[in-house]
Amino acid sequence: MFDLVAGFCQSQILLALIDLEILQCLADGPQSPLDLALAVRVPEGRMKVLLNGGAALGLITVRREVKLTPRGAALLAVPGLPDMIRHHETLYRDLSDPVAFFRGETETELAAVWPYVFGDGAAQDPARAARYSRLMEGSMALVAEDTLAAVDLSRAEHLMDVGGGTGAFVKAVAKTVPKLDLTLFDLPAVTAGVTDLPPRARILSGSFRDGNLPRGADVITLVRVLYDHDDASVAELLARVRDALPPRGRVIISEPMTGCRAGDSYFALYCMAMRTGQVRSVERVAELLREAGFGGLRTPKSRRPFVTSVVEAVR
Ligand SMILES: C[S@@+](CC[C@H](N)C(=O)[O-])C[C@H]1O[C@@H](n2cnc3c(N)ncnc32)[C@H](O)[C@@H]1O
Questions:
Q1: What pTM does this model have?
Q2: Any domain includes 99
Q3: In a domain, 244, yes or no
Q4: Closest Cα partner for 241 from 254, 222, 264?
Q5: Which atom of ligand 1 is nearest to 225's Cα?
């Protein structure tokens, strides 16, 4: 019961530790509580409360000196994770009146972080695209690891990652699967920021809302793409994916889904705050694939449902 009411305070402790750069300071070595308080201009007594909160979350230990725990160090070691946590301030503002939020009366701010939800016309600014792509890149390592553990790409010849951002998944595939040809497909504002793709990967810019997808790949991946969009857009996208694949070609969907605590109590609200977004169950994703004409459905058990779940289908 306790964590049901304490969740918000715990998130704010985490945000304060990150925004005040306390975890970052401690990465350089232990510090006394007083030095930390002076460095970040928080009164000593209030700093004690914040530090004890951080210790209760398992991120630091507080004795004569304050030290990072392995969990705190792990949090800092994931590139982009502090930025990902920080951008939740927007979500928390959107949720500050939960009744209005669930009634659909809140003009949410989070949607503006993901401008493509307003259509491609709104998604042409490379600076905004770079910002959201950075947020996604930070969490890709775990998503790629679990996705690649769930599927067999040993006989695949050419994989196209649609909505692949700045190529973090393509790079992870290149490291894991030798000889596979790779294509990254995303909006021009996003692909403008792509760097360091492996030589066997090529970039195609475009919108999956504008006509057919490029052909040539026998595997198409959609990693954390469907949950941004409503059913009508997803149906249209899956039809285009099917058209782009050869007979027996495969589509792989990987994203957090409902039916687990993270899916139902976090991702579902996050996507709703994006306005067009919708987290779906494994069964619903499978149903949308069947409706788009796919067969041979596979739904491997997720290793970490809070990271991702995978549904695979064959044309
Ligand atoms: C939530 S991000 C996921 C990025 C990447 N797959 C990942 O998991 O990190 C969704 C991606 O879909 C792309 N996207 C959105 N609308 C698109 C469209 N109409 N055509 C192509 N890509 C689009 C976005 O630019 C963004 O890179």
A1: 0.91
A2: no
A3: yes
A4: 222
A5: 10
